[in-house]
Amino acid sequence: MLRIGILTSGGDCQALNATMRGVVKGLCNQVSDIEIYGFEKGYHGLIYGEHRMLTSKDFSGILMQGGTILGTSRQPFKQMREPDENGLNKVEAMKHTYHKLRLNCLVVLGGNGTQKTANLLSEEGLNIIALPKTIDNDIWGTDMTFGFQSAVDIATNVIDCIHTTAASHNRVFIVEIMGHKVGWLTLHAGIAAGADIILLPEIPYDLESVLEGIERRKQQGKDFTILAVAEGAISKEDAKLSKKELRKKQEQSSYPSVSYQLAKEIEERTGQEVRITIPGHTQRGGSPCPYDRVLSTRIGSKAAELILNKEYGYMVAVKNNEMVKVPLSEIAGKLKMVSPDAEIIREAKRIGISFGD
Ligand code: F6P
Questions:
Q1: What kind and span of H or E run contains 250?
Q2: Catalytic residue among 12, 136, 138, 292
Q3: How many CB atoms neighbour CB 319 within 10 A?
Q4: Domains in the chain: ranges and CATH
Q5: Distance 22 CA to ligand 1 centre (A)
Q6: Which stretches does DSSP call E strand in the chain?
Q7: Band (167; pLDDT cuts 50, 70, 90)
Q8: I need a surface site. Which of 179, 193, 229, 248 has the fewest CB within 10 A?
Q9: CA 334 from chain center: how many Å?
Q10: How much is the pTM?
Q11: pLDDT tens per residue across span 46-57
């Protein structure tokens, strides 16, 4: 008898169900004697013993279904070692649930925080397989995360739609794209949709340089400019502040986000009207794109192989289009960021895209 636990944790994305389906199909096609326990709302379900028994049928027909059939929640890694409001030791509670159900393995699907807790549980002696989910594509150790390409499609489509309206007006448009710490999504959607200026958290911007970019377009006879701005884009000035100083400044700011501040500054300096579009959580919604469906199926299938080989303590990763295993201890706590010197940045600059630096 094989007993598997599975949970989805952190922000959702389009291909969570597709990935779970890959894992379960990969297992059920090899073993008949299997019990699958789905934990509700991520680590919450593991901590509080909220789970339901699932069969392979539950994973049928969900390849193209966004969201997660298990629900998800954010359980900050930093607080995992702290007792809950009733004094419960969360780590011990998770171990208790795992052992009570006599699981052979727990499969966790999630982003960076989830991977850190997965590593913690692995160090505590549980058999863990982790799978790389996030629209941010910022998990260390993998070339690609599932959810990313689907979100790129949505963000690209938003900028495409802005293009047609922007071309009819003499305006500057800002599209704010998800990604607080890391700008992969903004970078890819920005390039895919032909944004003129791309601002990323990893490349602090100088307002003067952004204004120059807008002016350059005017001189080329182009009346409109489109900026793809990551949620976490930051000015050179703010990048010099300590974390604490920056947090204080942001708390005291009257702007809901960086885009609003930029819009005001651009309007004041150029006299051009600025419009802001924030697709927000639509970027995590809807069906996974075909690329993600294939990726999820491959990741899920690889996870099944590792489980059947009793190889635990790994995250399934993509390296040069191959599915590989990476030790959880190697990836926990690291972020895969956009390097300002990356080839893709140099290529984008070569064709005239400004990064405001
Ligand atoms: O981690 C994925 C992500 O979508 C980020 O890009 C975004 O900043 C954040 O989640 C939003 O999270 P929440 O769903 O908690 O608002």
A1: helix 243-252
A2: 136
A3: 12
A4: 2-147+288-331 (3.40.50.450), 148-284 (3.40.50.460)
A5: 25
A6: 2-8, 34-39, 51-54, 105-110, 128-132, 171-177, 197-199, 225-230, 273-277, 314-319, 322-327
A7: confident
A8: 248
A9: 14
A10: 0.96
A11: 999 999 999 999
